[in-house]
Amino acid sequence: MGVLGGLYLAQGIPTYLLLVALPPIMRESGASRTAIGLFSLLMLPLILKFLVAPLVDRWSPWPGLGHRRGWIVPTQLLVSAGIASMALVGPSNVAVLFAICISITVVSSVQDIATDGYAVRQLTDRSRSMGNAVQAGAVALGVIIGGTAALVIFHVAGWQTMILLVAFLSLLPLLAALAMPPEPQAAAHDRIKPASLLAFFRRPNAWLILGFALTYRASEGLVRGMEGTYLVDSKVPTDWIGYLSGGAAATAGLVGVAIAALLIRKAGLTATLVLLGGLRSLCFLAFALNALGIMPGIWVALSASAFQTLIRYMELVAIYSFFMQSSSNDQPGTDFTILACAELIIYMAGASIAGLLADKLGYPALFSTATVISLAGMALSVWFLRRIGHCSKAPVTAGV
Questions:
Q1: Helices first, then strands: H and E counts in the chain
Q2: pLDDT per 10-residue tile (average), the chain, 400 residues
Q3: Could you tell me the CA-to-CA distances from 322 to 16, 83, 100, 188, 214 in Å, in that order?
Q4: Which of 76, 85, 321, 381 could, after both became Cys, cross-link 216 (CB 3.0–4.6 A)?
Q5: Whole-angstrom Cα distance, residue 330 to residue 377?
């Protein structure tokens, strides 16, 4: 569990440095909103990484370290070096900064594939829910270190100090990588059965599993894409929003993921997903009622935002547990990456049209639509889970 926590923290720190801390720093340094908007393209490697996942499953660039570790160690060194190189340019140098950041994201996405493949093979039915809780907790800690703490350090000590400190902190998870056991037998097995995208879709229940990935959180991008904007338009001070984001992530990382792991072990995966989907829908409904003026006040919006963050991290535990359970041992990184990318693509699609819907229809219609889609997606997901359990001749909740 310590190794998994370190490996996922290694991904979280650079990801949230680029996606959370960098945009406001660039804006404060004089970068245009158009230039900052282009940095959303940094998500492309995370969405398209499934294309290279079979390569990561098939061979390692440093086989002497073991299959997955042979990917993780060099990519982590490259990511930390990339972060450190950002200290050589200012936050207003958009072109050079974008080139560095897209390189970091590409390398980090490859590392992500290797880490997920390692987790799938190491976690058993009994340990999977706890392992996914550690994974989600490490993501939350990455938000705090790479996002919230980086912003604080920038305002106290400046750009170069902040960048170099984050680069150093991103090296620390290498200690976890060195503790990974090598996988010579897994690498040999991969050569017998080469990983491929087609191998996933040849599985009898592949389309059902993919359907779940595309529907369960289909509504979340609509709300998350406009949540911060809505809070600003509701006259919530920006520093409050920052404290709320960091505080909610810390609470979710320490408490929410543990509750989710316990729920999965006690009630089963399907029941947990239904419960979390219902609670998420209530959060969206609270946003809608607040926007309509039925439940007015900034504290309603803040409470809904904080609770939604908690639910989101709990959902990550549940859906990643399902994704890992559904990944084959023959090509674990490829299978998990396909499902994770599908879930991210549908999230990004919702986030990309959220602003348009808010401009055309208003916040009440946006949040109401998200609530309806959330309930429909939850119902579809339960149907998919039941069909998957029927196809595999075993209940989805078994052993989880």
A1: 21, 0
A2: 84 83 77 70 85 84 80 90 92 88 91 86 78 78 80 84 90 81 52 72 86 88 79 70 64 72 81 88 92 86 82 83 83 86 86 81 90 91 80 38
A3: 25, 33, 34, 27, 13
A4: 381
A5: 30
